[in-house]
Amino acid sequence: MRIGRAKTVSPDAESRARLAFEAEALASVDSLYRTALRLTRVPADAEDLVQETYLKAFRAADRFQPGTNLRAWLFTILHNTARNRARDRAREGLTVDSEAVDQAADTPSYGLSGPVPTPEALLLREALTPELQAAVDELPDAFRQAVWLRDVEEFSYAEIAEMLSIPVGTVMSRISRGRRMLFDRLQHLNPVHA
Amino acid sequence: MPSNHPSCASIDSLVTPFIDGELNPVDRQLIEHHLSRCGACRSRVAAEQSVHELMQERKTALCHGHAPAILRSRCATAARFSTAGTKSPASANAGRPARFGRRAWAWMAPLSAAASLAVIVGGAFLYQATAESSHLLAAELAADHMKCFAMNAVLGTHQSVEAVQSSMASGFGWSMRLPVGAEREGLELVGSRPCLYGEGKIAHIMYRHNGEPLSLFMLPRTVRPEQLVETLGHECAIWSSQDRTFVLVSRESRADVEKLVQYVHVSMR
């Protein structure tokens, strides 16, 4: 019996471009995985999420606009996939109260707790990285995502809006609220302020 | 100026973009002017700013984890098989992909050396993504092949031809004979293992060929075109006979794999 060989692609310009695309996409695997971990908090789920992201990305490669930000495109797919999964889980019984999250995000949070001591940065610098990590992980999903994507992954507001499928204004209010929540948590960790 | 002063509220929406350096010059001037006169707002801006700076400062520490090596290779594999058969955009959002890393290990927890003597078959229907692509099938089975052999190195399973054949009968209703004269081909039977696959079951028979791991997978009620696929450093030969699909996985050369396929195909009953 003869078995036909899988087609091998000749090294023409098109396949070189494809290889470059794949290599560039795969270079983001670490940051996608970290972000997926922040989203799911479960390593196995994060791995699934990243793998599904790459499957979708490679299959939809022809829809990627060359010259635009590939990393942002991958993050958009990652978040869309995570959202779809959350929706599936919600159908299975768990509920996601996204409306409450948005209401919370749109509520101005500052100006309520009165003046804050001025050497804020110095104060927070006392926080240990594991404490910061824990504080980030404890944030409600919507705020954690927004702060993480901005401060750690350094995406623009517009890119984050696209990823999370929310208006730019909501992105800003979630970042703002998320940072403020982090500040409150970290401040309480400091014995001087306890 | 108290923080609930109207002009304090009016700068609310400017605070975050101000900290992120994304304000236009006009708004920037507006908020700077306000901050120069309002201590409460200076404090709240400083609070948010300090978190922003702390996050950025600790970015490296927060990002300490790397994606596991197996995930990396699975993603690279995703690139390889998706190149071969580019899907329509609609299918890009189709069902979940098969998770060939974790799933293959699902059977491991309750497994003991004694339990491993029974042939265990896992899995029934393939995930949709798998059904779409022989490349994905090959990649998944190559991963399962590596894991089952790694596991076997720990358990040291060794089963007789009769034990495997009776497991095929009880697990699949196949009254089959394993290839005869296997020793002459340099094949030594190791045994069979469960590879939980999708939502159904497939058979996994393990051999050593001249000492090197070789797997023969059999998928019931599946017909696929013949193909030889290289994935994860393995050659995967796929062929169908009657209503069963066979996949032979090994690290050997294409020529050797083709010879072995020939042998298995003609000698298995």
Overview of this structure, please?
The complex is a heterodimer of chains A (194) and B (269). Chain A has 10 helices and no strands. With 194 residues, chain A is mostly helical. Chain A folds into 2 domains: 13-91, RNA polymerase sigma factor, region 2, helix turn helix motif (Rna Polymerase Sigma Factor, Chain: A); 104-193, Arc Repressor Mutant, subunit A (Orthogonal Bundle). Chain B has 269 residues and is of the alpha+beta class. Chain B folds into 2 domains: 6-62, no CATH class; 69-85 and 95-267, MucB/RseB, C-terminal domain (Phosphorylase Kinase, domain 1, 2-Layer Sandwich). Helices cover 44% and strands 17% of the residues of chain B. Chain B is built from 10 helices and 7 strands. In chain B, strands 1, 2, 3, 4, 5, 6 and 7 form a 7-stranded antiparallel β-sheet that branches. In chain B, β6 (234-241) and β7 form a beta hairpin. In chain B, α3 (25-37) packs across α4 (39-57). Chain B is rod-shaped and about 95 Å long. The model of chain B is unreliable at 84-132 (pLDDT under 50). The chains are: A mainly alpha (194), B alpha+beta (269). At the A-B interface, α1, α2, α3, α6 and α7 of A face α2, α4, α5, α6 and β5 of B.
Please indicate the count of domains of chain B: 2
**Element order, helices and strands of chain B?**
HHHHHHEHHHEEEEEEH
CATH names the topology of the largest domain in chain A as: Arc Repressor Mutant, subunit A
Radius of gyration computed on alpha carbons of chain A:
21 Å
Mean pLDDT value of chain A: 78
Largest interface: A-B, 69 and 74 residues
* First and last CA, distance of chain A: 77 Å
- In total, the number of strands of chain A is 0
What is the count of helical runs of chain B? 10
**What is the CATH first-level class name of the largest domain in chain A?**
Mainly Alpha
Shape of chain A: elongated
Order of helices and strands of chain A: HHHHHHHHHH
Within the CATH hierarchy, at the fold level, what is the topology of the largest domain in chain B? Phosphorylase Kinase, domain 1
Question: What CATH architecture label of the largest domain in chain A applies?
Answer: Orthogonal Bundle
- Unreliable segments of 5+ consecutive residues of chain B: 84-132
Mean of residue pLDDT values of chain B = 74
Unreliable stretches of chain A (pLDDT < 50, length at least 5) are 105-118
Under the CATH scheme, which class of the largest domain in chain B? Alpha Beta
Radius of gyration of chain B: 29 Å
In CATH, what is the homologous superfamily of the largest domain in chain A?
A: Winged helix-like DNA-binding domain superfamily/Winged helix DNA-binding domain
The CATH architecture term of the largest domain in chain B is 2-Layer Sandwich
